[in-house]
Design a protein that fits this description.
The protein is mainly α. It is about 75% helix and about 0% strand. The protein has 25 helices and no strands. The chain is flat, with a radius of gyration of 49 Å.
Length: about 775
């Protein structure tokens, strides 16, 4: 608080302090400030004086007016007091005059009331009979008689045992039974919703069972509604001179010319939507998509609102009311409407922009029905059917894209076959082929999501929750695309149990997908490519696909964090795991495929030999050379996945000592040794895959030897081939990795000794 505002302010002290502490410029500045404040205070003081003076004048006028009015009120109060005294005197005079006759007046009044009641009761049979004689199909005829009956029946129920009223009661009940019968008959023949509602109302007023009448009301309403729906379903696609898109644009252009120019200043998209909402169905060619929408708006919506309003008016306030029947009726109608809509959209090849406008309008129409029903159940059903319809349109796009997506794999398969014929690891052509296939897949996915963008870009037109609904659609089709890639990659396993559930997701396309995939015959290099594709997808490409969707739909970061976070944690992680598993499965199949191919070549060559009369061996057989060449090719192919691995140089550390046991001891020992897993899990490495191929090859050779008998030269030929295979495998894989294969080769030599009639090793 400044010194000037304090209660004990001393002007002399304040002035002396200012002079002592401040310079001349500061004193002049403070002087100016004080002058300004003084002028402001003078102005405020003048304003306050003026305001108070105005209030004083107003108060004076009010006091003067009150004084005048009080004088007049005193006169009026005196007149009122005189009038009340006169009324009091007259009242006392009347009481004195009629006190002796009051009892008689009450008695006569009661008699008059009873006579009125009796007249009502006596007239009841004739009133009911009169209504039966009129045109019975008009429900208005029974409205007044039923109201009269309900009023009279309360008295009859109390006095029905009186002799004079018993006959009236019996006649009335007989007539009411006839009326009920006629009303029930009229319900079955009601021509419109209004008559049905009135007839049901009559029976409710006659205390008929409400639940039964509710079922009858819904049943008859459904039958009448079905007539409109049958008309909709029976409409065939029109034969238009131009495409439906062109027809729509032409109609729109013609109508624009009839309307004032300023009506169409808004953007074209907004114009299309409002235009569709306001124009009659007669404007559109019968059977077109827009005709269907307007037919629903003009015919079905009004009928459904009538049904809903009638139901709620008749039954909603009753304890036994069950709205499920009403919900079921409306939901069935919605289902048929969207079924016809989806069917016509698929036939019309209408642009996605126009389909979106039609869907927005359809939702707007059906939401009117939802608003006429208690609760939000029907509104949710509108959203449900709208979502299904959107998905139906997107499924059409997806189905068309499936062949393109499979075509990428088909092209990749063809290039793998071509590359396999001229395989050369010196260049990186194959890596470029894989990269090209991945980029083509990514582009196809981007084109797919771009294509149906106009359908789901609603800007809130579909519903307040449209953003979440659109993101759910994007997520679902994101997964569907990945599922299709997964099925395509995994199909090479030829294990149909794996794919039953996944292929069933593509219900209408299952046969086409399987037919296309069966054309992709297994090629060793193609399997390597699929393994690399699975590896790329689970490591980075899934995230790239998501990023592409985010880019296409311009999804803000906060929306990704809010709506996609849980999706990332559950679905995307599951998809990554699936492709990781597919990668392992394909590498196992690669090993089995090449192992069986080499084994088949070996057995085909061995089966043609007579080992007892075999000529003296000079060299390894040609088939063995082919097997080793295939093995070398596999090793080179695996370099694409794993690069070049270092081989151990110590060739003696894992060699086993020659056995001195006889063949019976060897057989017993072999029986008790732990079994070697031939078709189990394959280690995800170059040496692991090659070892798996080698196990299959050596196991096949071992089983063959155990069922054959060999002579001396046959024994020596097999011994030469086996030792060559042993040398080749240790050179290709590395001696440190080959302990298991060397053990299998020694078992083969032992079995060969056991099956030879004169075993003699080559020196």
């Amino acid at each position: 608080m400044e010194d000037l505002d304090r209660q004990n302010f001393n002007c002399n002290d304040y002035f002396q302090n200012l002079i002592a502490e401040r310079r001349v410029k500061e004193l002049l500045k403070r002087n100016n400030e004080l002058c300004t404040e003084i002028k402001t205070l003078d102005s405020d003081m003048q304003t306050l004086v003026y305001e108070n003076y105005s209030k004083f004048i107003s108060a004076t006028d009010t006091i003067r007016s009150v004084k005048t009015n009080v004088d007049e009120m005193e006169k009026e109060m005196q007149d009122l007091s005189n009038s009340l005294e006169k009324i009091q005197q007259l009242n006392e005079h009347i009481d004195t005059s009629l006190s002796s006759k009051s009892t008689e007046i009450c008695r006569l009044d009661n008699i008059q009331r009873n006579l009125k009641k009796y007249k009502i009761l006596s007239d009841l049979p004739s009133i009911l009979a009169s209504s039966l004689e009129q045109e019975s199909s008009n429900p208005e005829i029974f409205k007044k008689p039923i109201k009269y009956y309900n009023k009279a029946n309360k008295i009859l129920q109390q006095l029905k045992e009186e002799a004079s009223l018993k006959k009236i009661h019996e006649e009335s009940e007989s007539k009411i039974v006839q009326i009920k019968s006629i009303i029930r008959r009229n319900i079955q023949s009601s021509a419109n919703q209004s008559d049905l509602k009135m007839n049901i109302s009559h029976l409710l007023h006659l205390d008929e069972d409400a639940l039964t009448l509710q079922s009858i009301f819904i049943s008859r309403s459904d039958e009448m509604l079905q007539t409109l729906l049958d008309t909709l379903q029976a409409v065939e696609a029109p034969e238009l001179e131009a495409a439906e898109d062109e027809t729509y644009e032409k109609i729109l252009e013609n109508e624009k010319k009839k309307v004032e120019r300023n009506v169409f200043e808004s953007e074209n998209e907004e114009l299309n939507k409002n235009f569709l909402l306001t124009k009659s169905s007669t404007l559109w060619p019968k059977g077109t998509v827009f005709w269907i929408v307007k037919y629903v708006q003009e015919q079905l919506v009004a009928r459904l609102i009538d049904i809903s309003g009638g139901f709620q008016e008749l039954f909603l306030n009753r304890q036994e009311c069950d709205c499920q029947e009403l919900y079921g009726l409306i939901e069935r109608a919605f289902g048929q409407v969207f079924e016809k809509f989806d069917q016509r959209v698929e036939q019309s090849a209408l642009s996605h922009h126009h389909v979106r406008n039609a869907l927005v309008t359809l939702r707007s129409c059906l939401s009117e029905v939802a608003r006429s029903v208690e609760g939000d159940y029907i509104d949710k059903k509108v959203e449900f059917h709208l979502d299904n319809s959107l998905r139906a349109q997107i499924d059409v796009i997806f189905n068309k894209r499936v062949s393109a997506l499979l075509g990428v794999f088909g092209s990749f398969h063809s290039r793998c076959e071509e590359f396999h014929k001229n395989f050369n690891l010196v260049d990186n052509d194959f890596n470029e082929i894989i990269t090209g296939a991945l980029e083509a897949l990514l582009n196809e996915v981007g084109d797919f999501f771009t294509t149906f963008k106009p359908l789901v870009e609603s800007d809130g037109d579909y519903s307040e929750g449209s953003r979440a609904a659109v993101h759910k659609i994007l997520q679902d089709y994101f997964v569907k695309i990945l599922d299709l890639m997964w099925v395509t990659c995994n199909y090479q396993r030829k294990d149909f149990t794996y794919a039953e559930q996944e292929v069933n997701k593509f219900s209408g396309l299952r046969e086409d997908i399987e037919k296309t995939l069966k054309e992709f015959t297994p090629v060793s290099l193609y399997l390597i490519g699929l393994v690399e594709i699975c590896s790329e997808i689970h490591s980075s490409r899934i995230e790239e696909i998501k990023s592409k969707i985010v880019e296409i739909y311009e999804i803000p970061a906060n929306v990704i964090k809010m709506i996609w976070r849980e999706f990332d944690h559950t679905v995307i992680s599951t998809q990554k795991r699936c492709f990781k598993e597919a990668q392992s499965s394909l590498i196992r199949f690669y090993a089995e495929f090449n192992g069986r191919k080499s084994s088949d070549l070996m057995i085909k060559n061995l089966d043609g030999c007579n080992w007892l009369k075999f000529r003296e061996p000079r060299d390894i057989r040609l088939a063995t050379e082919f097997i080793i060449k295939d093995f070398i090719t596999c090793s080179q192919e695996l370099v694409i996945l794993f690069g070049v691995e270092k081989k151990a140089s110590n060739a003696t550390s894992l060699q086993r000592r020659p056995t001195t046991k006889n063949r019976y001891d060897q057989e017993i020992e072999r029986m008790f040794e732990s079994k070697t897993t031939i078709f189990g899990e394959v280690e995800y490495s170059r040496s692991g895959v090659l070892l798996s191929i080698g196990r299959i090859l050596l196991k096949t050779l071992s089983e063959y030897i155990r069922r054959e008998t060999f002579g001396k030269f046959g024994y020596q030929q097999i011994e030469i081939d086996v030792n060559f295979i042993k040398y080749a495998l240790t050179e290709i894989i590395g001696i440190s990795e080959c302990a298991e294969l060397i053990g299998m080769i020694e078992e083969i030599i032992a079995s060969l000794n056991a099956r030879c009639i004169e075993p003699e090793s080559v020196s």
